[in-house]
Design a protein that fits this description.
By secondary structure, this protein is an alpha/beta fold. The chain contains twelve helices and 22 strands. Strands 1, 15, 16, 17, 18, 19, 20, 21 and 22 form a nine-stranded mixed β-sheet that branches. Strands 2, 3, 4, 5, 6, 9, 10, 11 and 14 form a nine-stranded parallel β-sheet that branches. Strands 7-8 form a two-stranded antiparallel ribbon. The longest helix has 20 residues. Pyridoxal-5'-phosphate binds next to loops.
């Protein structure tokens, strides 16, 4: 073929980014008739959750604790998903092992209604007075965002005669002494608008002493929005050192809360990810046809023949994510004290708290969309526009920079014309009258051209993708959410119920055993 500048190029091999799919989700996808019947009855888009998987993930995090002989809780960061089924299933886990991290008054009410007692709840994020009052009232641990919030909480506890409240203080902007040869202090973690800079910790300690009648410091916390093990390892070590400082002053914190951000691997194959990202750079340079809608570069640009900028993309293939990432973080040597964080925590008898969101709901669900229309894209002879019964708010992959292919679930017999099985590049567009309503700006390769009536399954969407940005623009329906379960000894039929009807009982719909 010849491109616009008259150069020859070989027609693209499909650049797949096929998803990583673990067994429960894989066997659900194999039951295409079941998924089609759900979407027929409940409409498109449709979110499908597997509550048993979230319990399995919590157990995998717990096994990392056991391997390192550590005590402490796994707090699910509720903000990753609005579902009741997931929170109820977690509420049914060992109370000493699993808690929930809530970031708003409504998330707190929801968690309590799902069966979490207050002592298993951690309140994070910036808070208003009502949120602080209810958290203190039910005996939740308040993860304080700032000194102002500490003053406000202490004031509420006194004024309304609430019980002394357990608090963590969230720190950020970690610095460390670069030693005798160094130039004083160095910022070791990115700035955050949340938490108190570690350099201002002194003011916090004084305030905690002043408010000792109404709050009790139970630990130090951080949450860093990075995938860097190095940065997180340093912050963890810094917290252990600051804990010593607290103890020397007579405060008695006993837990280090290292937040979330353990990550998820979305794309199965490292080679596919490598090829796609390389091809993106080549497309930005103009040495291959665009891989995206109107040549969008995901933050990369061509400056006189050189690629500049950084791609605003989630690292979709991750060899080490979730519980394995926690294990790696705990095992690698810390820079100042020279020993792994797990050893430091154990020696100091500190509990470890974690707040996984995305990683705890890994493989817990999928989002279904009906194919409504298929037509030539016009920008290249072999590309198509595929319009779906969903919009970019229903599956916010782009918003989070997550690039992964959907799985095509044909309706009935796929048929076998000569071109039916040829891979094809498609642009997935949404159901809004908005040029920008693209499910993904990336050209997606599918093993064959879909037909109206087929379903596309976006897998592994439970973390932030399925409902974080859902809205009601144009009165388009937002997705219903269902929970699916399967009788013990897999192989039995899938059962489903609306998310809000799910309770973690063996026979949720009163089916006799
Ligand atoms: C969002 C958030 C989390 C969860 O982050 P993930 O990347 O989903 O694990 C945990 N703690 C705090 C304070 C957060 O804001």
């Amino acid at each position: 073929m010849i491109d616009r500048r008259g150069r020859y190029f070989v027609k693209d091999a499909p650049l797949y980014l096929r998803p990583r799919i673990d067994p429960p989700l894989a066997s659900l996808l194999e039951d295409a008739p079941f998924l089609h019947s759900l979407a027929d009855a409940l409409g498109s888009p449709l979110n499908v959750l597997l509550p048993e998987v979230v319990a399995g993930n919590a157990e995998r995090f717990r096994s990392v604790y056991r391997r390192h002989h550590l005590a402490g809780r796994v707090y699910f960061a509720h903000k990753a998903n609005r579902s009741s089924a997931l929170v109820r299933r977690l509420a049914a886990c060992d109370p000493a092992a699993v808690g929930v991290d809530v970031a708003s008054l409504e998330e707190l009410r929801h968690a309590l209604g799902c069966g979490f007692t207050g002592d298993r709840v951690m309140a994070t994020g910036p808070k208003d007075a009502e949120f602080l009052w209810l958290a203190a009232r039910v005996g939740a641990t308040v993860n304080l965002d700032s000194l102002t919030e500490l003053d406000q909480l202490a004031g509420l506890v006194r004024k309304y005669r609430l019980a002394r409240t357990d608090v963590l203080v969230r720190l950020s902007g970690f610095e460390s002494d670069t030693g005798p040869g160094g130039a004083g202090t160095r910022l070791l973690s990115r700035r955050s608008r949340f938490g108190t800079p570690a350099a201002e910790a002194d003011g916090l300690w004084r305030a905690l002493e002043r408010h000792a009648d109404s709050v009790e410091l139970v630990g130090l916390a951080y949450h860093l929005d990075t995938t860097g093990l190095e940065e997180k390892g340093r912050a963890l070590e810094r917290c252990v050192l600051l804990m010593d400082e607290c103890r020397a002053r007579g405060l008695a914190p006993r837990a280090v809360d290292i937040g979330g951000g353990f990550g998820v691997g979305y794309v199965e194959d490292a080679g596919e990810w490598q090829r796609w990202t390389t091809a993106l750079s080549e497309a930005v340079l103009g040495i291959r046809p665009p891989l995206t809608w109107r040549g969008h570069g995901y933050g990369l640009r061509n400056e006189a023949g050189t690629v500049r900028g950084t791609a605003a993309l989630y690292p979709a293939h991750r060899p080490t994510a979730g519980p394995d990432y926690l294990d790696a973080l705990l095992s690698r040597s810390a820079p100042v004290l020279g020993r792994p964080p797990a050893t430091l925590l154990l020696e100091h008898l500190h509990d470890l708290f974690i707040e996984p969101g995305r990683a705890l709901v890994d493989q817990c669900g999928l989002s279904l969309a009906r194919v409504l229309e298929v037509r030539p894209a016009g920008d290249a002879p072999d590309r198509y526009l595929v319009r779906l019964g969903m919009n970019a708010g229903d599956v916010s992959l782009e918003e989070h920079g997550v690039l992964v292919d959907p799985v095509l679930l044909p309706r009935g017999d796929p048929g076998h014309g000569p071109t039916d099985d040829a891979p094809v590049g498609v642009h997935l567009v949404g159901n809004l009258c908005l040029e920008a309503d693209l499910i993904t700006r990336r050209l997606v390769f599918l093993p064959r051209l879909p037909r109206p009536g087929d379903l596309l399954a976006f897998v592994n969407t439970a973390g932030y993708v399925m409902d974080f940005h859902a809205h009601h623009a144009q009165h388009q329906p937002s997705a219903r959410t269902v929970a699916v379960t399967r009788d013990d000894g897999a192989g039995g039929p899938w059962r489903w119920c609306p998310d809000e009807n799910y309770w973690p009982l063996t026979h949720p719909q009163g089916v006799p055993s």
